[in-house]
Specification:
Helices cover 65% and strands 6% of the residues. The protein has 446 residues and is mainly alpha-helical. Strand 3, helix 4 and strand 4 form a beta-alpha-beta unit. The chain starts with a strand and ends with a helix.
Length: 446
């Protein structure tokens, strides 16, 4: 489909082929009404921008830009290494920091004004190896390494973690050298070892990216349930009433339920369109975040909080679905949840619009309703597992819980059925109420 028109007018003309396509659709009243609503919406360039372009462009940028700004892969932190000791131990530590990589390292041998360097933006971290460093270590004493940093800068924190990894390696080497003449090993000074084991329903470890995905995707589907088709849906009820165009439609020889069904079909189409754009854009943003997270692990040479090493973390970064979970099942479940979410949100919009006389008044009603529905939605990623059960029985949040259960505990059939059944029951109730409200005479006369 090709669209063209005047720039800035918001109005576009649709090619002749789109108009001719309307003659080939089924002649059922709901389908005809849906086609009418869809074609009218597509004549407005703003519909395409709001439902496709903005989510695809803005969501990945909003998710990835904060990570890109602090990632050592894209913007390596500037580290100034100040050597005030010329001994062999100081040179050994300087070499380890230099070999760490992932940073822009500047080595100085004289004193510097650390405050001026940090606050002036010339360095994200100043590392000072003070005088007597080598002498203290040679004598078996403790030597200090001083960090000067900006506590409000994420890049400073990243730089500290990178330098600390190099310092820890040198420290272990020095401890081993001190213990060797005593026939002791590092185990002697590290008698306790902390080990972490994940406990998941699949029995497999999950990466931090999977955890973030299990928090974000349910929220995104919940947002679809709250917003529905957005202003497009509001315009089909309150907007048409304000423009007096709904009178001609409702007085036509077509049942009101057929008209409402057609409007629901059109609203569901745009809900799915906006939902798919939002979900795909979110996944793209998560992948960008995962790649930068993986790069950070590789640079620091560390191990993730769950014991995932470099190679495992890099492999997990490209995976937003846990191992052992069928991707086809998750995809099908997310699509079903999006359909339920879109219909639920649109039913709420029809209900609120039926009480409003103008488009602006409908927006105010919808804003208050969304404020109530979003409160339990915020709790989905944070509540402990024992409190998840009630959320499966709550309006709208049951849809988000359905997606979460698919990702976190797909083997719990009872939970999936409970979330799905609750969502369907609430949807049926909302559809019945919205149909009754839409059938009132006040819909026409206000």
């Amino acid at each position: 489909m090709r669209l063209w028109g005047r720039i800035g007018s918001g109005e576009v003309k649709v090619t002749r082929g789109l108009g001719l396509a309307g003659y080939g659709i089924p002649k059922a009243a709901p389908v005809v009404v849906a086609w009418k609503e869809i074609t009218e919406a597509l004549r407005d360039r703003r519909t395409i921008i709001n439902t496709i372009v903005l989510p695809v462009v803005l969501i990945p940028l909003a998710m990835a830009i904060p990570i890109l700004m602090v990632s050592p892969k894209t913007t390596p932190p500037v580290v100034e290494l100040v050597l005030l000791d010329d001994g062999g131990a100081a040179g050994r530590l300087a070499s380890a920091i230099s070999d760490q990589g992932g940073m822009s390292l500047v080595v100085r041998t004289g004193r510097v004004n650390t405050s001026a360097e940090i606050l002036g933006g010339r360095a994200d971290l100043v590392v000072v190896i003070p005088e007597g460093f080598t002498a203290n270590l040679t004598s078996g004493l403790t030597a200090s390494v001083d960090y000067y940093y900006d506590p409000f800068s994420m890049k400073s924190s990243t730089a500290i973690s990178m330098v600390s990894a190099a310092v820890s390696r040198v420290e272990e080497e020095i401890v081993s050298e001190r213990l060797r003449p005593l026939n002791l090993s590092l185990d002697y000074v590290h008698p306790l070892v902390e080990r972490e084991f994940q406990v998941t329903s699949t029995g497999r470890e999950v990466s931090p990216e999977v955890v973030v995905g299990s928090m974000m995707l349910p929220m995104m589907v919940g947002v679809i349930a709250i917003t529905g088709a957005g202003t497009f849906a509001l315009d089909m009820i309150a907007g048409e009433r304000e423009r007096k165009t709904i009178e001609a439609l409702l007085t036509a020889p077509v049942g009101r339920l057929s008209i409402l069904a057609g409007k629901y079909l059109a609203m569901t189409f745009f809900s799915l369109l906006a939902g798919l754009s939002t979900i795909m854009a979110s996944i793209l943003g998560l992948i960008l975040m995962a790649e930068e997270f993986s790069a950070g692990l590789q640079v620091t040479g560390g191990v993730g909080p769950s014991g995932i090493g470099q190679a495992a973390a890099a492999a997990a970064a490209a995976r937003l679905i846990p191992e052992g979970v069928n991707p086809a099942l998750v995809l099908a479940g997310v699509v079903v949840a999006m359909i339920l979410a879109g219909l639920t949100g649109n039913a709420v919009i029809v209900m609120t619009s039926s009480f409003a006389k103008t488009f602006k008044e409908a927006q105010q009603y919808l804003g208050a309703t969304m404020g109530v529905l979003v409160l339990p939605m915020v709790a989905v990623p944070y509540l402990p597992p024992p409190m998840m059960g009630p959320l499966r029985l709550a309006p709208v949040t049951s849809i988000a819980m359905l997606v979460r259960d698919l990702l976190v505990d797909p083997g719990n059939v009872a939970a999936l059925v409970e979330s799905f059944a609750s969502s369907v029951i609430y949807l049926m109730l909302l559809l019945i109420v919205s149909a009754k409200l839409f059938g009132r005479e006040s819909v026409i006369f206000g």
